[in-house]
């Protein structure tokens, strides 16, 4: 049997402090190969904490996470950095692009870090530019393009090195609804065509309706899961219903962490 792309085994995260805070409590799920999983939950429910653990940016207090069979706790900090660079791709709400570089330079970053030859980098970057429909802005600087173009560039950068798992934290959080729809269709295509695994945190029910299934967390616990059937519209409605049941689905303020 194939190794799951992602295994989250009974993971808890306690932030120590004057008053220790249990941000995640015994969270367990797997993502099978090629799956597009959504994670939803009220503000403060632990979504970003979960992504940080999966990204090996932070360590669980207990429990275990495996990515393509590799246990994250077995990695030293250098190996964890390599895993982030080679095996993972990231898409963020605030894009995290380098403003003074051009679109194509930003996309090339993950390949440049790997020491791949300029010729091969150029060919691969062009391929991704075409695919995301941004070839015409390849030479523009990030500070001269729109939000939708920035998120396309960020997605291009996240897939250019063919990662096994793409992590997205509120990828449509700063986009209008039309641009959100375009970005979600691109992520859906990447998932389908590359069989790339995607794990996406979102507040946006419409964005979540592009997933195969959505996990809901509340107060650090997985509390529900909805699987998409054949109708996206029905799935969307069920996501909305679950959101209002759980309450507190307001957007994080843009100034809050992660
Ligand atoms: N580094 C940290 N130190 C202490 N508490 C934290 C830290 N990061 C997050 N928290 C707390 O953990 C809880 C979950 O936060 P977070 O994972 O950011 O939730 P979400 O992304 O769902 O809004 C919140 O109560 C938050 O205040
Ligand atoms: Mg968050």
From TrEMBL:
Please name the SUPFAM superfamilies in this protein's record: P-loop containing nucleoside triphosphate hydrolases
Q: Which organism is it from?
A: Paenibacillus sabuli
Q: Which domain of life is it from?
A: Bacteria
PROSITE patterns in alphabetical order: ABC_TRANSPORTER_2 (PS50893)
Alphabetized InterPro entries for the sequence: AAA+_ATPase, ABC_transporter-like_ATP-bd, ABC_transpr_LolD-like, MacB-like_ATP-bd, P-loop_NTPase
Protein name, per record: ABC transporter ATP-binding protein
State the Pfam families in the record: ABC_tran
Q: Does the keyword Nucleotide-binding apply?
A: yes
ABC transporter domain residues are: 6-244
- Gene Ontology terms: cellular component: membrane protein complex; plasma membrane
Task: Name residues in a coiled coil.
Answer: none
Q: Which UniProt keywords apply?
A: ATP-binding, Nucleotide-binding, Transport
Which Gene Ontology molecular function entries are recorded, alphabetically? Answer: ATP binding; ATP hydrolysis activity; transmembrane transporter activity
């Amino acid at each position: 049997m194939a190794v799951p792309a992602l295994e989250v085994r009974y993971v808890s995260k306690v932030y120590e402090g004057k008053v220790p805070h249990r941000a995640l409590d015994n969270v367990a799920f797997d993502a099978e190969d090629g799956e597009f999983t959504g994670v939803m939950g009220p503000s403060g429910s632990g979504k970003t904490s979960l992504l940080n653990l999966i990204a090996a940016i932070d360590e669980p207090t207990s429990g275990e996470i495996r990515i393509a069979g590799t246990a994250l706790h077995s990695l030293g900090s250098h190996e964890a950095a390599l895993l982030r660079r080679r095996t993972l791709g990231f898409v963020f709400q605030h894009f995290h692009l380098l403003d003074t570089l051009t679109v194509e330079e930003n996309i090339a970053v993950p390949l440049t870090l790997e020491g791949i030859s300029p010729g091969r980098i150029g060919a691969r970057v062009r391929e991704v530019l075409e695919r995301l429909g941004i070839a015409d802005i390849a030479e523009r600087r990030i500070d001269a393009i729109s939000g939708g173009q920035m998120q396309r560039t960020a997605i291009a950068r996240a897939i250019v090195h063919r990662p096994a798992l793409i992590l997205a934290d509120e990828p449509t959080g700063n986009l209008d609804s039309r641009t959100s729809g375009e970005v979600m269709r691109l992520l859906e295509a990447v998932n389908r065509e590359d069989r790339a695994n995607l794990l996406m945190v979102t507040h946006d029910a419409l964005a979540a309706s592009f997933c195969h299934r959505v996990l809901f967390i509340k107060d650090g616990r997985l509390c529900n899961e909805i699987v998409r059937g054949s109708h996206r519209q029905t799935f969307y409605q069920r996501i909305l219903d679950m959101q209002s049941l759980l309450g507190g689905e307001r957007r994080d303020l843009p100034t809050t962490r992660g």
